[in-house]
Design brief:
This protein is α/β, with parallel strands linked by helices and 292 residues long. The chain is built from 12 helices and 7 strands. Helix 10 links the parallel strand 5 and strand 6 (249-254). The mean pLDDT is 91.
């Protein structure tokens, strides 16, 4: 789903809830003569206003009376005046001239963007050696502070079975509730970029926009995907660079070391990813979780 579609969906949902509320009110008018009479008064005042009479104050008065009455006799006002799902954009999908977070979240969450299992921090800590426990603690603090953290990029390196993916699954579970988050395999990431590169209709942006704008993007096992010409290397740079500029969090696990990453993706990309102002990088080593 791209943002245009997400915005359309948000606005349609708002329209639908207003229509439902109107219907409820009409039903109440049919059943409730007292309410009906107040409503008639109000409509009469509106009609007179249309003919030039100054009835604004009395309309307001009648409105207040109706509200008071609804509150007393119908309990909650919400069914007649549905609150916005998103106060920030008032369910328009646009806030302060920008795509609202709710639209980004909808675009991200709609398209099956959690590809790997989500885990609990406590499960990863059981029986883990001290060093790994410390890394878990760091990551937990990161989650607690997020998004108010200086660290935006996290790179967990090390061989297979060192618990990198499991740890990312813990982070993903913590943060997915609070923000828009994608948790992709490098294969899935590459697949989306290829789809973006080779699509030329209006679904195109739906592949790249969430990758650029989700609050958190996790790419698991970077380096395991195939290198596609004009895609893999090129878009990885665009994604990391743009996300850095926007202050978005990009989390990566990889079996490769920095040198191998540089050879594969180029120095420019690696220096953005490991930007020392925003990056926490850690090599997890020598501890095979799968042996427990
Ligand atoms: Zn919004």
């Amino acid at each position: 789903m791209n943002y245009r579609q997400a915005i359309a969906e948000i606005r349609m949902a708002r329209e639908a809830s207003l229509v439902r509320a109107d219907l409820k009110y009409e039903k109440a008018l049919e059943r409730d003569p007292e309410l009906y009479s107040m409503e008639l008064d109000k409509r009469d005042l509106i009609l007179r206003a249309a003919h030039g009479e100054d009835t604004a104050a009395r309309i307001k008065e009648t409105d207040d009376k109706i509200l008071q009455y609804l509150k007393q006799h119908y309990g909650s006002l919400e069914e007649f005046f549905p609150p916005y799902s998103c106060e920030k954009c008032k369910d328009t999908g646009i806030a302060n001239g920008k795509i609202c977070d709710c639209a980004i979240k909808l675009a991200v969450s709609q398209s099956d963007n959690i590809e790997l299992p989500l885990n609990d921090f406590k499960d990863g800590l059981e029986g883990a050696p001290e060093e790994l426990k410390r890394t878990y603690e760091h990551m937990r603090v990161f989650c607690d502070k997020f998004p108010d953290t200086n660290i935006k990029n996290i790179v967990l390196m090390g061989g297979s079975g060192t618990g990198k993916t499991f740890l990312m699954g813990c982070i993903a579970k913590e943060l997915a509730l609070r923000c828009s988050l994608m948790f992709l395999t490098a294969y899935g990431f590459n697949k989306r970029l290829t789809a973006y590169h080779t699509t030329f209709d209006d679904t195109k942006e739906g592949y790249l926009e969430p990758i650029l704008d989700s609050d958190v993007l996790i790419i698991d096992d970077l380096g395991s995907e195939s290198m596609l010409r004009n895609v893999t290397k090129e878009y990885l740079y665009i994604v990391i660079n743009e996300r850095n500029l926007k202050g978005k969090a990009t989390l990566v696990t990889t079996n490769l070391d920095m040198k191998a990453l540089e050879e594969r993706y180029g120095a420019k990309t690696v220096s953005r990813l490991f930007d020392k102002n925003v990056c926490y990088a850690k090599v997890l080593k020598g501890y095979d979780l799968r042996k427990i």
